Amino acid sequence: MPTGGKLVAAIVFGALAYFISDLIKPLLVDTHGTELDWFSRWNGLIGVLMGWQIIGKTAGKSYRTAFGMGLTTLAATVFWCLVLWSAWEMIQKSMRRSYGGAVEAVQDMTQIFVEYAVFAARQEIIIAAVIGALFCAWVTEFFGKRWT
Description:
Blueprint: H1 4-32, H2 39-58, H3 63-95, H4 102-120, H5 123-146
């Protein structure tokens, strides 16, 4: 059932995911030498879905709950973004027939997932993401209490 809290959560966490993706994008272009036209948009969409599904369900309960769920939403967003982009790279490699079978492809996808996670685990990105998630949680709770 749509509520104001879910709507606000979807908007603010989508914006946060888009913003963090824009922080990561220059680093990826420098190291990987690729164009990332859809990177921020897809990650923003994942942020919208996670905001709606995770913190949106608890909006309006308490600020303590909101801050915990905000960090949970951030973790879920990061996880699914990493899954999406590691799967995308695995599919690109499989189109070039780089794998001997499905198991090898999934193993490589796991390795790519870990490489991307380590790459994105920079102090400035983590600080911005955590502060952003706490702020988004506060905004979600503020409007969730008023628009339930």
